[in-house]
């Protein structure tokens, strides 16, 4: 029956193309017009075509198999550049969600090449294979931690996470300033809440532990942190309608700190009313003391509690910076992230029609402002507190400038949104070249070089 069906289908195709008479038998096509080629001709042609195709596939596979893993990995990352124009055609927030979804499903390439040894460093007792991280705001709900770490980031920071789910501000709320390499957003801590994030991070943590237990080599050393090959930071926020900010952050600590390699108190977003008021000396001191107490009252193993950092805004006066530095030193804060987005609009941005949109500006126009704040804070804290430089980094030279200005680690966001995965190995390679060019043997040797 199957053979008959196949012959009938083939006969129908030939009839449709006028290569067979209606009176011809199905089996032999004996009545084909003299002008039509015989079936044997088409069978031979089909076999040749199939053979040629298989030959190309086999030859291509053989060639790929001879290419070393590093070269092949480089191809995959370079190939992601072909997708960038399609994302550019989409609404900014739609493109963002699609990118997170792709990372969550591990549709992005995985970095198989080792980082240059010169980029490795240890901070807070945690080993980073490189100092280049992904800033909070990209993966707000910890949906794609494994996929993002797999891209080769030294660390990934998720959040901001609020205790109770909230939708954030009305849409549209993300705007591209493409010519300036910038983005304005007023998302307003849109979050699925700490329960949803805790479930995802718990599953990730469990998988990591299972992989370690099932490792075939008992002597194998696992680099990275609680989420896998890289370090995981969790950025905590407060709900828009909450009247007790400290209680929100404490709740985040109690629920999520067990899954974090470091925690961040975000008091710097311009899109949550009253949030930046928490950067005042008294308010910040009271807040940090309560959050530190909540963290320290929990039971921890030999590794101890996760480091606690505060993320600050770039729109601060000299007096504000002095107050924050004093609090950080007095309370032995583990670090500061400098900085979040700015509400200012630099001259070269102000002419863009979208510059009138309210919200925080990120990307290249933020670089100078955030770097100057970074340098000032490094001086005020006398280099005693690790700083994470964030804002406007789009190249290895930019990352290097942040490090020379006092940053121990650096973070990307907007440039990654524009450049995609291919930007990560590029920045790391350029950064390694900068260090070697100036005679530094490690990242830590270069930290604060411009402030000495």
Spatial shape: globular
Biggest sheet: strands side by side, in what order? 3-4-7-8-9-10-12-13
Report the major sheet. 8 strands, parallel, barrel
Number of helices: 16
H/E element sequence: HHHHHEEEHEEEHEHEHEHEHEHEHEHHH
Strand content: 5-15%
The termini sit apart by 86 Å
Assembly type of the chains comes to single chain
Unreliable spans are 2-6, 17-36
Helix content: 40-55%
Mean pLDDT: 87
Structural class per helix/strand content?
A: alpha/beta
Describe this structure in words.
There is one protein chain. This protein has helices spanning 2-16, 39-66, 69-79, 84-88, 92-104, 145-149, 194-213, 245-256, 281-296, 318-330, 347-350, 367-380, 396-404, 414-419, 423-437, 443-446; strands at residues 121-123, 126-128, 132-134, 155-161, 174-177, 182-185, 231-236, 262-266, 308-312, 335-338, 360-363, 387-390, 409-412. By secondary structure, it is α/β, with parallel strands linked by helices. Helix 10 packs across helix 12 and helix 13 crosses helix 15 (423-437). The longest helix has 28 residues, at 39-66. Its cofactor is FMN. It catalyses: (S)-dihydroorotate + a quinone = orotate + a quinol. It is an enzyme of class 1 (oxidoreductase). Its main location: mitochondrion.
């Amino acid at each position: 029956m199957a053979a008959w069906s196949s012959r009938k289908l083939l006969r129908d195709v030939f009839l449709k193309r006028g290569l067979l008479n209606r009176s011809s038998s199905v089996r032999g096509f004996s009545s084909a017009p003299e002008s039509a080629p015989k079936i044997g001709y088409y069978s031979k042609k089909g076999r040749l075509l199939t053979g040629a195709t298989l030959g190309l596939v086999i030859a291509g596979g053989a060639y790929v198999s001879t290419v070393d893993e590093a070269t092949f990995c480089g191809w995959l990352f370079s190939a992601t550049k072909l997708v960038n124009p399609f994302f550019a055609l989409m609404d900014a927030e739609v493109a963002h969600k699609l990118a997170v979804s792709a990372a969550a499903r591990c549709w992005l390439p995985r970095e198989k090449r080792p980082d240059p040894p010169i980029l490795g460093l240890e901070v807070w007792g945690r080993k980073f294979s490189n100092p280049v991280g992904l800033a909070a705001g990209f993966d707000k709900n910890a949906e794609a931690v494994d996929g993002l770490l797999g891209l080769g980031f030294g660390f990934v920071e998720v959040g901001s996470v609020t205790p109770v789910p909230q939708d954030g501000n009305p849409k549209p709320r993300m705007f591209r300033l493409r010519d300036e390499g910038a983005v304005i957003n007023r998302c307003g801590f849109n979050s699925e809440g700490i329960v949803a994030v805790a479930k995802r991070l718990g599953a990730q943590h469990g998988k990591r532990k299972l992989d370690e237990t099932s490792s075939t080599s008992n002597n194998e050393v696992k680099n990275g942190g609680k989420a896998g090959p890289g370090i995981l930071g969790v950025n905590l926020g407060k709900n828009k309608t909450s009247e007790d900010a400290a209680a929100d952050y404490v709740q985040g600590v109690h629920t999520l700190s067990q899954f974090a390699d470091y925690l961040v108190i975000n008091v710097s977003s311009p899109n949550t009313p009253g949030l930046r008021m928490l950067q005042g000396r008294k308010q910040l001191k009271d807040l940090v003391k309560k959050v530190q107490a909540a963290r320290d009252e929990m039971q921890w193993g030999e590794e101890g509690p996760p480091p606690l950092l505060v993320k600050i805004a770039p729109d601060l006066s000299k007096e504000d910076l002095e107050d924050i530095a004093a609090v950080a030193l007095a309370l032995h804060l583990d670090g500061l992230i400098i900085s979040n987005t700015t509400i200012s609009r630099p001259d070269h941005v102000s002419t863009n029609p979208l510059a009138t949109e309210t919200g925080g500006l990120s990307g290249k126009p933020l670089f100078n402002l955030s770097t100057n704040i970074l340098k000032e804070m490094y001086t005020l804290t006398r280099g005693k507190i690790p700083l994470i430089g964030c804002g406007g980094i789009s190249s290895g030279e930019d990352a290097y400038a942040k490090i020379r200005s006092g940053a121990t680690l650096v973070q990307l966001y907007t440039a990654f949104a524009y450049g995609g995965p291919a930007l990560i190995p590029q920045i790391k390679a350029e950064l390694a070249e900068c260090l070697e060019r100036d005679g530094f043997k490690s990242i830590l040797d270069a930290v604060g070089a411009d402030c000495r």
